[in-house]
## 1
Amino acid sequence: MNIAILGCGTMGMIYAHNLAKMPGVTVTGVVDINARRAERAAALTGAKAYTDVASLFEQKDLETVAVCLPTYLHKPYVLQIAEKGLHVICEKPAALTLEDAQEMRAACEQHGARLFIGHVVRFFPNYHDAYQQAHSGKIGAPKMAHFKRYGAYPQGMEGWYTDPGKSGGVIMDLMIHDIDYACWLFGEVESVYASVVKRDEPKMDYAQLTLHFKNKAIASLTGYWGYPGPFTTQFEVSGDQGIIRFDSNQVQPLDIQTMGLLRGEGPAVQIPSGSSLHDPYYKELQHFIECIRNGSDPLVSIEDACYAVAIAQAAGQSAQTGQPVMIGGNVS
Amino acid sequence: MNKIKVGFISFAHMHAATYLFSMLKRDDVEVVGIADEDAERVRPYSVERGIPYYADYNELLSQEIDAVVICSENARHAEITKRAAEAGKHVLCEKPLGLSEAEMLEMIRVCKEHDVQLMTAFPCRYLTSVRQAKEAVDAGQIGDILAMKGTNRGTMPGGWFIEREKSGGGAVFDHTVHVMDLMHWFTGSKVEEVYAHAETLFHDTDIDDAGMVHVKFANGVVAVLDPSWSRNRTFPTWGDVTLEIIGTKGVLNIDAFAQKNEVYSDVTGKAAAWSFWGDDMDEGLINSFVESIRNGKPVEVTGEDGYYSARVALAAYESASTKRTVQLKSQA
């Protein structure tokens, strides 16, 4: 599998790191408008560095492009890639609007290209285990859930995360992980209600939202950019015969304390880390590549990704109007 | 020393037992009688301890007593409180204060008219972690409050709690009021708008056992609260009281029953149990009530506090049935 990475920021480097060590996969090109960042990714993967996508398209044996660009650039680049008949693995969220995401989907279908959206939380072993436990009958029928996802304010290139027109804000960019997971768990959403608190100095974007599902299940989600503590994820799924809980701050399989370690600057965008042989991005990318090879269906479909965008949009609308938003349509 | 003379009316709500034990610990209190239409229910607390039993609470009210503790079914709070006030007795009334706004306002009015104090039993105010949190917030440690998320998840109590005509409502009524009172206390503001879900998800019953309550305060703070009876049989404890407060300068988390030992017992047969070893909140509540009566100073948690909290739960039911936000008038 010959694959290229488009966008060599935080996520592009995570992709580069994982793809570089994946058997049967060759990273043939890395692209970033910033030549220094492209070179950095090239050094890690042995790929050729480019500063524009047109030069990448000159590669003859390229099969797949991983899109790790800021969200507002997903659609224009995915459309270009699809037109070349190349498969696409695109970072979440698919796009800033359902319309854009569907346009991407249609373009890929039209050109016979596969399109995968990186809802990586489904590949996190703790979330994956919870899903399996919840569906095993061990907790009876899942009825309610809580999800929490807190981290520092992300420092993207030229502050693109701070511009809701580029990132979609905390709901669309961060909480969409838990929105997708909750919909995976409970199915179709009936209504969404959300409240958002945004501030400058220090910058914060916080939201609390409730999803009410068609099967009457209730999920409460909180997300926070600008949290002063460590990157934190928590969830609880309660069924009529049991409860599953996880708190990232309680899980520490390895603890190392060293003398006189100076606290340096944190990373630009916080990514949860854990003691596992492969990080969830590795599992996710490997799965998508297998789907391309076998023509099989992915764990998270483009329809799922579009649905998550629709719910995130509805949440944004609810926060703006102060009223719940009823969800029409179906999960396809 | 002149002892404060206290009577207990009804042990329908078993909080009465810990309130009684807290009273009995004090040298300056004499428990002069326990009234309950069910003699058997109170036998271990009354005659077996040498405390006179009354089948009719009116007879207890005709004794020379200073105050009564009312732990009847919710539906009888108003009637008994008003009788006690008319008899010139101060009242400590179990939560939720009453079943309707009009009923609660009447209770408050009658107590004022007869110059007796009305305290709502919100023991969570006397949790040590809560008091420390209040001090931290008041000292400005987390700046101004922006948002809160609370939980008061519990075990389904059964009995009269799930008989609507006696309880007035299920989990949303039973478990919204404690943490909503804390939210009012911390913000110093009042809830203006409510959006909520109320469902029966966990148990085979006709009354709501699950919900999610969103509120907006007059000062702009937003909050969400889970009052569900969602703790299953094998959960290691009865439930929880948690409150997360997002401020302009920091984040504060209360997990009121986190002070626990984990007990793994082959004898009790329960896989894991939490043994709480923190301070006793009920004792704090009782001590505060007794000291207010003793010193003739205003009770720390008033009838109005009980009213403001319970009206949110009432509005939650209205919102759940109309699927819209419900506005609350700003004054009692």
## 2
Amino acid sequence: QQVDEQPQPASFVPSEMLMPPDYAGQFFQPASNSDYYAQSSYIGSFDEEPPLLEELGINFDHIWQKTLTVLNPMKPADGSIMNETDLTGPVLFCVALGATLLLAGKAQFGYVYGLSALGCLGVYALLNLMSSSGVSCGCVASVLGYCLLPMVILSSCAIFFSLQGTFGTASALVIVGWCSLSASKIFMSALDMEGQQLLIAYPCALLYGLFALLTVF
Amino acid sequence: MHPAGLAAAAGTPRLRKWPSKRRIPVSQPGMADPHQLFDDTSSAQSRGYGAQRAPGGLGYPSASASPQAAFLADPVSNMAMAYGSSLAAQGKELVDKNIDRFIPVTKLKYYFAVDTMYVGKKLGLLFFPYLHQDWEVQYQQDTPVAPRFDVNAPDLYIPAMAFITYVLVAGLALGTQDRFSPDLLGLQASSALAWLTLEVLAILLSLYLVTVNTDLTTIDLVAFLGYKYVGMIGGVLMGLLFGKIGYYLVLGWCCASIFVFIRTLRLKILAEAAAEGVPVRGARNQLRMYLTMAVAAAQPLLMYWLTFHLVR
């Protein structure tokens, strides 16, 4: 029996909104479109649906691995982990930073988001201009977001005691150094640019320094 | 339509509903995909899932699946999807082409071809230019050599980083004086950018009025004018550590250095003969000389204007 259905143009757009748990085709970046429809003549069943988290591309194991990479800046990075442009972890860390700032008495979510967006754009432009091979904006956002984790630690310290002293300044400097070291290490391994680690680390340090300004003052 | 579809489902062997939503199977995660730089390695997990799931079902209701399965199965919506994604690719190409019209990306890449040694030497030159002899930029077959190879060539990395560092240091200074709030950061950045734009426009206007034909591009000018931010940062930092005395000392030092440093600009504006120190008569050259001196004199003024309110 033919399995070709009558065309249903009316359901083209609304079906995305009707069945969000099933239709998550936007999350993967298509490399070649012909593969999608190679087996178009079928009627599948609901049982072989992939689980929701997998369809959304959220892989908690990878997120945890990447977090551990960031938390240990001395260990050499494996360039392939950062190949996924996974934005779940970064968004989570941004929200965590905003939440800890809120607990410390500063409701500055808008500044956190605005600064991270501008910073991502700036570092994306800089890396594309400086390196011979380009990067995608998603990769930059992902790396910068993961390396924001030590800043969350700093701002959670700010809840308990004020950072406006010698100890606060010193710890802010250490945290900024930690963040930018991790970020530049991952960029170096992903972009393969030798001899320019300091040049990459400095813009990242500036961005995290701006975050530290928000946290400390 | 739907009953026919369901009947077909009963008769045919069960297939995966979304067989190729993942990409072509790559043999290992992290392998370079020719279409994009970074692989989506989460697809490595999904292939494992797919193999496990195909034989067994989980008893989910299949009624909700059929409209979607039906919609994806028919050739018209296949074509529509393919058209939609090719449209997206076309849109991306269009954006890339138009960006190139407004922002000359290849020209900008020249100014960012730096390495750590160049940056170090240039910063040293900015603070102590008195021992440097040869200020000419080397040329290689009519095009100037990349900054990586010649310390006299202008670059945009240092000015850009110096600008952002200036905003950061301004925030730090305001914070230590308890005057900080995050919107002040934006205010400082915007005002410094506005002054820079004003300066560039003023110099371009005067170059036009004096009818000087030089090979000084706008980006070169931005680079030269951006170097003063390094001195400003030094001044403010010293002011934070040692008070007003330190601020004035370092600012005076950096102003003197900028005077000397503007020699590179002079070489570009003046005619060749005049630049080598041989006095050449003529109203034109005098005008050019005055212009260069005006630019050089404006630098310390701006450096003071943009930093004095930060040091108390």
